[in-house]
């Protein structure tokens, strides 16, 4: 199922959402490099200055039976279409529950890209027969908590970790 839809942002730019390709390596690094230190912290829950190689390899070499990664690609007039967002889920063995993560470039935040990435990711998870999507969001990340709340996720405290909220959506 290789469909791509084009979405418009308010500034007359457009982007497509598609599955990640192995050739996206440099564009994923560029997306990370353009995240502010605060955005990196909110995404990875600790300060990091370089995208870990293991993470990069993991996201580029997916087992599509258990994982999905979608990218939002800016439709640019330049030769290089920049990746401006990424959403991913992974499914632990022998479960029908997946865990999501998402990042959107700072300069494109608040343009609906995160919402659209999540809607597409949720649809893919449903198509793959998964029953629940969960995520762990820092309590100090009101934008993400607002996004998942708008998408119908339940937000709960985690007993042994006061820094994070567990968010969950029945698919």
What report would you give on this structure?
This protein has 171 residues and is α+β, with helices and mostly antiparallel strands. It has a single domain (5-170), classed as 3-Layer(aba) Sandwich (Aminopeptidase), CATH 3.40.630.30. Helix content is 29%, strand content 33%. The chain has an eight-stranded mixed sheet with strand order 1-2-3-4-5-6-8-7, with helices on both faces. A hairpin with a 5-residue loop joins strand 1 (5-8) and strand 2 (14-19). It is globular and about 50 Å long.
List keywords for this structure.
5 helices; alpha+beta; 8 strands; 29% helix; eight-stranded mixed beta sheet; Aminopeptidase; single chain; 171 residues; globular
**Count of helical stretches:** 5
Output the CATH topology: Aminopeptidase
Q: Structural class of the secondary structure composition?
A: alpha+beta
Mean pLDDT: 86
Main sheet strand line-up: 1-2-3-4-5-6-8-7
Domain unit count: 1
Total strand count, please? Answer: 8
Main sheet makeup: 8 strands, mixed
Q: What's the alpha carbon Rg, rounded to whole Å? A: 15 Å
Overall helicity: 25-40%
Q: Please, what is the CATH homologous superfamily?
A: Gcn5-related N-acetyltransferase (GNAT)
Instruction: Indicate the low-confidence ranges by residue numbers.
Output: none
For this structure, what is the CATH class? Alpha Beta
State the assembly state of the protein chains: single chain
> Distance N terminus to C terminus?
19 Å
H/E element order: EEHHHEEEHEHEE
Shape: globular
Corresponding CATH architecture: 3-Layer(aba) Sandwich
């Amino acid at each position: 199922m290789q469909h791509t839809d084009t979405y418009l942002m308010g500034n007359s730019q457009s982007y497509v959402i598609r599955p990640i390709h192995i050739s996206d390596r440099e564009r994923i690094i560029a997306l990370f490099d353009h995240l502010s230190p605060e955005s990196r912290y909110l995404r990875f829950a600790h300060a990091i200055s370089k995208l870990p190689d293991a993470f990069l390899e993991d996201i580029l070499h997916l087992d599509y039976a258990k994982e999905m990664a979608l990218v939002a690609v800016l439709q640019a007039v330049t030769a290089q279409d920049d990746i401006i967002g990424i959403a991913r889920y992974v499914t632990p063995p022998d479960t029908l529950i997946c865990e999501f993560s998402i990042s959107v470039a700072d300069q494109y935040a608040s343009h609906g890209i995160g919402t659209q990435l999540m809607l597409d990711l949720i649809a893919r998870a449903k198509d793959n027969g998964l029953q629940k999507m969960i995520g762990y969001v820092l309590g100090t990340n009101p934008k993400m908590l607002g996004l998942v709340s708008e998408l119908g996720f339940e937000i709960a405290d985690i007993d042994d970790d006061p820094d994070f909220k567990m968010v969950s959506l029945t698919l």
